[in-house]
Amino acid sequence: MSEVTLLELEIYRKMIECEEKRWGHREVTRVQESFSQITKHRTYEGDIRIKDCDENGEHVIVENAGVIEHRLSGYRLTRSVGGIERSFTFPSLFVLYPGQTVEISSRGHQSRHAHNHHFVLEHEGNWGVSSHVVTHLYNANGKEVASYEVKTI
């Protein structure tokens, strides 16, 4: 809100308070609004990248943005929140073809979008929620190939 609008609201509130005093009763309700800003930043090396991470910990989406197929056997997604690491390892023989996406959702989460593949993070209720979360994707050799950072301010 602009300063003028806030000033007008304060003047109006004072006028109401004066009228309430004149009539002998008073009831004040204060409303506080809060706004948060979510910023997302991703890094990647090569064709395989993290396309999206839900800020509520419901899913992570990985995509093949290249023109050749990639075997993701042994690739591992990790996210640490509050000292607890959650991870998912892609099954052997899993291949992600060019332009395809795969969603790894938390247990009980229903996908709202059509993805080519879908896996469930079985052992956890969600991927974890915090005001600052970084999700990493490692290849089968343990080298980080992508990351996705979500900050809520």
Automatic annotation (TrEMBL):
GO terms for molecular function: structural constituent of cytoskeleton. GO terms for biological process: heterochromatin formation; nuclear envelope organization; nuclear migration; nuclear pore localization; protein localization to nuclear envelope. The keyword Coiled coil applies. GO terms for cellular component: nuclear lamina. Signal peptide: none annotated. Residues 36-152 form the LTD domain. Gene3D superfamilies: Lamin Tail domain. Keywords: Coiled coil. This is LTD domain-containing protein. It comes from Nippostrongylus brasiliensis (Rat hookworm).
